[in-house]
Structures are given as C-alpha cells and as structure tokens.
Amino acid sequence: MRVDRAVIALTGRLVITGDVPDDLRGKPLLMAANHIGNLDPLVLIAACRERRISPRFVATGGLFDAPVIGSIMRAGRHVRADRGKASAGEALGKVVNALTEDANPVLVYPEGRLTLEPNMWPERGKTGVARMALAAGTPVIPISQWGAHEAMCYGMVRVESAHDLWVLFSSWLRAVVRRPTMRVHFGAPVDLSDLAADRVGDAARARDRIMRAITEGLIPLRIDEPEAPLHHDPTRPVTDKPSPWLSR
C-alpha cells in the first residue's frame, strides 16, 4: 500500500469524498466499485488507505498465476475468481468465508470487467456481488470513481508481448506529465434489509440498487462530462448498449 500510494502520487491528483461509517468498521463489509481503467485498482487502494481501510479484491485467477504479483495477491488474502470456468461459482463461497475470517472488507467490481459502455457509465453488472452480500448478510458500500481511465489506456484484452506492455506503460508516462485528477467517492450503505438470499428475484433487485447507488455517486464526479468523456482512448472498445442506470 505504501508503494501504491507513491505510484498514485506520481501519476496525478487524488480527490476523495465520503467515508465508511465508523459502526461498520471491523465488521464484515462488501465494497462495490465501477471499473473504468487498468490503473483504477491502484487508485482504489490509495483511496482506501486514506480512509484507513485495507481492502481485499475479488480478482481474476490469471493475476494469482502471474509471477511476483501472484504471490502478492495470495499474501494479501485477496479472493480468486476464475472467469469462464466451472469453478467461477466457487467465488461466492470464497467471499462469504473471507468476510467471516478477516475484518478487512472485500472489494468487488459488479460489472465484472472494464466498462465498455459508450460513454463510460456503469454497465448493467452481474448479480454476483448482490448474492455475496445477501448470503453473508453484510452491508454494501458503493464506491464511484472517475479519472483513472486517463492514467492508463485500455490497451488490449491480453498482454502477450513487450510491445503490449509498452503501449500501457507509455500511456502511463504521458499521464505522469498531464497529472489527471482521479476522484473516488465512498457512498452511503445500500439498504438490502428487505431482501433475502433464497427469494427469487431478490439478487437482481439487490444488484439494481447497488448499481444505481454507484451511478448516483458517479454523476457529481463527472459533472463536466455528462455525455462522452473528454479524454479519448482509441484503444478502448465499446458496445452499443447504453447504461440502464441513468435517468434520461
């Protein structure tokens, strides 16, 4: 976390609003954030450090298999989720166990990937985070962030060569010169008290509340960019599906 803080301080300016209520600290807690760029996990870690929180990420299995970073992920007790495999469903049980075994919160990306929404608003998201929260009976803190997409380009889906690494690294070097402002907002806990893990449809209802809370927190962070982002990343692909969480 100390190294991360130095990297983010070098990259740009970090602005944090909101906090985690004192009565939720030291208890099982899920945190759900929008996913906008390759560097935003480091931005979230730096923001959490400023708020005296040490989050554990639910992350793709490939990170755990990578040299160096894999050992860091395992030592930090982050939670592995293998995408597109039969074991993907095991992530829910792993998170529930992680919440009961450690007082540090678990941070999840409900969208499951970097957003490809045309204007970088949150995508529909998956019900996994909602199921985790309902199964564990834990509060959910929505986290909204903006600006980290300017710190490193999307690049490619899989890094396979030194050139691929250079595309990412060179975009970060340009950000160091520009020094973008990276904003993170910790929202109020999402009320899921009337929902149950074993009731049909409640996981989708919980997902909808979580995604709306993230979107509502994001609106003031990008008040000057309500439509298309001012920063253009030619490497980022987009879908033709607009965010369902904006009131138009």
TrEMBL record:
Residues 225-248 are annotated as: Disordered. It comes from the Bacteria. The lineage of its organism: Bacteria, Bacillati, Actinomycetota, Actinomycetes, Pseudonocardiales. Keywords: Acyltransferase, Transferase. This is 1-acyl-sn-glycerol-3-phosphate acyltransferase. The keyword Acyltransferase applies. Residues 225-239 have a biased composition (Basic and acidic residues). InterPro entries: Plipid/glycerol_acylTrfase (IPR002123). One of its GO terms (molecular function) is acyltransferase activity. It comes from Saccharopolyspora endophytica. PANTHER family: 1-ACYL-SN-GLYCEROL-3-PHOSPHATE ACYLTRANSFERASE (PTHR10434). Residues 29-148 form the Phospholipid/glycerol acyltransferase domain.
